[in-house]
Known about the structure:
Layout: H1 3-6, E1 11-13, E2 19-22, E3 25-29, E4 37-43, H2 45-50, H3 54-68, E5 76-79, E6 83-86, E7 89-92, H4 103-111
Protein name: PRC-barrel domain containing protein
Amino acid sequence: MDLLRDVLDKQLVDRNGVKMGKVDGIVAELRPNSPPRVVAIEVGAIVMARRFGRRPKRWITWLASRLGGDRHSTPHRVAWSAVRDIGVDVELDVAVTDTGIFDWQDWLRDRVVSKIPGA
């Protein structure tokens, strides 16, 4: 399997068919005298910003931390063992509600969008 081609930037879908975003990063464990082992996938703007360099990553991390607190200043990770299938989408054996992936959009909905008249 070519991880970059087959996993990175694919749509993530939870066990209920809810779209959770795209796979933004892959976390591997380096072991002596053994090949690397994939341990998790990462989701979120911080991971995406990291692809563009240190400055974008630092800025997005600062912004997320400032607006949403410390729990938003790190990428969301889903254990590789939760990956059920890799096809057109990456299907997970977890529900999105069991992760913190939608916390940011829930925060925006509750604190920003709900204050807009007619929203």
